[in-house]
Amino acid sequence: MLVVMQHDASGDEIQRVVDTIEELGYEARPMPGKQRTAVGLVGNDGRVDASRLAALPGVKEIIHVTQPYKQVSREWKEESTVVRLPGGLRIGGNEVVVIAGPCSVESEEQIIQTARSVRASGAAMLRGGAFKPRSSPYSFQGLGEEGLKLLAKAREETGLLVVTEAMDAEGVDLVTQYADVIQIGARNMQNSSLLKRAGRAGKPVLLKRGIAATITELLLSAEYLLAEGNHDVILCERGVRGFDNATRNVFDLAAITVVHGLSHLPIIADPSHATGWRDKVTPMARAAVAAGADGVMVEVHQQPDRALSDGAQSLYPEQFAELMREIRVIAEAIGRVVAEPLPAVSA
Ligand code: PEP
Ligand code: MN
Q1: Which CATH class is domain 2-63?
Q2: What are the boundaries of each domain within the chain?
Q3: At what angle do helices 108-121 and 145-158 cross, to 10 degrees?
Q4: Does the beta carbon of 142 lie inside 6 Å of ligand 1?
Q5: What's the predicted TM-score (pTM) here?
Q6: What is the pLDDT of residues 124-183, one digit of tens each?
Q7: For a FRET experiment, which of 22, 252, 305, 322 has its CA 20 to 30 Å from that of 286?
Q8: CATH annotation of 83-338
Q9: Is 238 in the pocket of ligand 1 (CB under 6 A)?
Q10: Quick check: CB of 248 below 6 Å from ligand 1?
């Protein structure tokens, strides 16, 4: 349950709500926000009699949130969140944002060439891991800060905004210096210290669904970010582990519409990690846009057979160009448009 305070509620009035919640035997979580301050009530197992709270001075309204997550729910905020990125790019509005690039940043030549090529095809953002969460410790772990610098260089040359992963709480500051959006990967979706740190980073966060996470767990992880004050959160469906190894993961297409129903946050799809095979990526990217995804994130490599990670699921540049043409048609059919890339800074 949320006790929403009036705009001009005083500190004493907020404290009185907190005290009353505690007297009732529950936990109070004050949630100061730019628009309004609310006090969350947790620890209840069922509906709470709110009459005492509703009568307190400074209280505007009581919202009964039926979900375990609060601030990310549509009950808390009805209108869809639009995450605003530098240069006016928006995720969660009418535009469908396409993010493309290699799994990992491998070299200057590779990332600059790929950035130029995906931009020419119409991608608005560049992806590429500098810190890679690999299943094996013997696999390529990424270029680290050098990779972040190369991503920043690619942004300067092409105007593409950059999303890249922070793997641990200590790494968030470094990634924040270079990236436009901080990615939290599937393996880290429930790393609460990382979530808390990213929630204070002051930059938008792309939160990927965990390898075997339910939608409720995904939304609870997003709640950590909002609870720390970061409301610029983009969710990402990237498939969950199933019993069939025909594809790398089971792409949960319905999650897109389920999340749109339960939450005001935007959700994009990653058909690359969801399927693991390049010939499956294009059909699932098309399907994701048709299903209402606010964007897609696709791995593209100039020479997939030489990729240091995830070559089998990386599209050739020409395949990506064709996918962009198809996505534009699908977006138009459902009354949306594909976001245009921003002009290059140096242009
Ligand atoms: C990635 O997008 O670079 C990645 C590692 O994906 P995931 O966290 O979804 O496995
Ligand atoms: Mn990858």
Answers
A1: alpha beta
A2: 2-63, 83-338
A3: 40
A4: no
A5: 0.90
A6: 999 999 999 999 999 999 999 999 999 999 999 999 999 999 999 999 999 999 999 999
A7: 305
A8: 3.20.20.70
A9: yes
A10: no
